[in-house]
Specification:
Elements: H1 3-16, H2 21-48, E1 60-69, E2 74-78, E3 83-95, E4 104-107, H3 114-120, H4 122-133, H5 139-142, E5 153-154, E6 166-173, E7 176-181, E8 198-207, E9 218-222, E10 236-244, E11 256-261, H6 267-273, E12 293-298, E13 306-313, E14 316-321, E15 331-336, H7 339-348
Parallel strand pairs: 1-3, 3-8, 9-10
Antiparallel strand pairs: 1-2, 3-6, 4-5, 4-7, 6-13, 7-8, 10-13, 11-12, 11-14, 14-15
Length: 361
């Protein structure tokens, strides 16, 4: 939407129908209030933080930047968006820090808001983690959770993302009050949401009428059996569609996160790190960096939902990883070859006895 287009349209109407000065002045007196109303509406759209430049039918875009205040130690989400219409929403998550972050969406019950979560739920999980760090039973803390906490619905969001990267994840959001949070930890067990990384978002009953994304070349069907991947991972840009087919029995949901691994990285160190209920799990500091380079993904959603995200793959070693308990890890490794290696592998499919292919047989 751009106001200059509306003004030029009015000018074209006047010229097309050869409206004279007096008529055009009267016409202007009629249409001026309409233009003013339209201008105010556009201003309100801008102030809401909602991206109004999307093409009709595209999801609304919410841009959120992860930042860190080195003086205060605060981890923060920066966004101008407080309200969006219901429907398909794309979260453009920018990690402008040196740490791993993600954006997880909690759909709160009834009229609960981010302030209720900050005062009634976050402190309890924080107390429980401090007890875990001390080697004590965290259930003493969990017993204090309010009854309404059981009615929170997890609605996905951009997955684990290393510093300096941007990921876009698209999800379908029904109306209600939401909290955007990150529960990556400092090495003393303090969650990032305790340090400020929690923001409220209202999804209105008005629908955006945005259409579901299309064009995914990689599809996943998440369950206790793994990722159910359909499609070929190659170098370049991919759009991944993730369908949630099964509800997880415990606190860990079935989700997917993309990790780039060094040649000597032990995948078990990555899957153990993904267990946030361990003292060292999901700790990201300069002194204790994550064991892999994370490129985003999609967090847990209710059964039947589908999330979409895009990745750009360079040659290297990768793994799809779920956020599971360390003793029940779910992952799938794969390697992206450079172009010459990929061509050789393809040629060796039909030349098994060629000397160049002996090492690959």
């Amino acid at each position: 939407m751009k106001t200059k287009n509306n003004i030029s349209t009015i000018k074209n109407i006047i010229e097309k129908y050869d409206i004279g000065y007096g008529s055009s002045r009267a016409f202007g007196l009629i249409i001026l209030p309409v233009l003013i109303a339209a201008s105010l509406a556009l201003t309100n759209c801008k102030d809401s933080g909602v991206n109004t430049d999307d093409q009709e039918g595209d999801p609304v875009v919410v841009e959120v930047k992860a930042s860190h205040n080195h003086e205060t130690g605060e981890h923060l989400f920066e966004t101008d968006t407080k309200e969006v219409p219901s429907g398909w929403v794309t979260f453009r998550f920018i990690n402008a820090t040196e740490y791993v972050h993600f954006l997880f969406l909690d759909h709160l019950p009834g009229d609960k808001t981010v302030e209720d979560q900050k005062t009634e739920i976050f402190p309890i999980f924080q107390e429980a983690m401090y007890l875990i760090m001390e080697g004590k039973d965290p259930n003493k803390a969990y017993a204090k959770l309010p009854a309404w906490s059981a009615d929170i619905v997890y609605r996905g969001g951009p997955g684990f993302l290393s510093g300096g990267n941007t990921i876009e994840t698209t999800v379908f959001l029904p109306s209600g009050n939401y909290v955007m949070e990150c529960y990556v930890k400092n090495d003393d067990g303090t969650y990032h949401y305790t340090n400020g990384m929690a923001k409220g978002l209202t999804v209105t009953e008005e629908s955006s009428d945005a259409k579901e994304p299309t064009g995914a070349d990689i599809r996943m069907n998440l369950s206790s059996d793994g990722f159910g991947i359909e499609g070929e991972m190659t170098a370049g840009q991919h759009t991944v569609a993730v369908t949630f087919n099964e509800k997880a029995p415990g606190l860990f949901g079935y989700d997917v996160h993309l990790a780039r691994l060094d040649e000597d990285t032990d995948i078990k160190t990555v899957t153990t790190w993904m267990d946030g209920f361990l003292p060292d799990g999901q700790v990201s500091t300069l002194d204790s960096p994550a064991p892999a380079y994370f490129l985003g993904g999609a967090h847990d959603m209710p059964v039947g939902n589908t999330a979409y995200f895009s990745v750009n793959l360079e040659p290297g070693r990768y793994a799809w990883v779920m956020e599971q308990a360390a003793n029940a890890s779910i992952y799938e490794e794969f390697t992206i070859l450079n172009q010459s290696a990929a061509i050789q592998v393809e040629e060796c499919k039909d030349k098994r006895h060629s000397p160049a292919c002996f090492d690959r047989n």
